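Section 5.1 Outputs to date
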Amino acid sequence: MNRGYNRKEYLTLIDKIKKRIPNCTISMDIIAGFCGETEQDHRETLSLMDYVKYDYGYMFKYSERPNTAASRKFKDDIPEEIKQRRLVEIIAKQQAQSLENNREKINNSYEVLIEGTSKKSTLHFYGRTTHNCVVVFKKNDLKVGQYVNVKIIACTAGTLKGEAL
């Protein structure tokens, strides 16, 4: 996809980031089934995910867009069912890694910016940590726009659940 780096350079950069900022959040965008992608390429993507353990990501299957460099330079040669299978595998791996990463946050406290009322309960707010993690917690007497310290007591792959301190 015309990246200006190779796998080794990318992993070296990830290692440097994690060494300098141990509790940083790393996210990714992955496109499954890009033109010419082999099964070996796909396995290398999965192994890269195992190495980095992204906190979250945006995952899509490739679809040709008219007038893009990819549409002009490459043939969309990966069958739809293969793209879909690869995407499902990537999403499943990311879900498991996100859950693992979120479980490590249980019993820790984070400063959270309150963004609004939870979609699932009018009794709860949601907000984000400085790591961009979504946290849901009881409203109490808090207000949107406030910063509040929240202790994480549970989680899903996509959401931390906590109690305002």
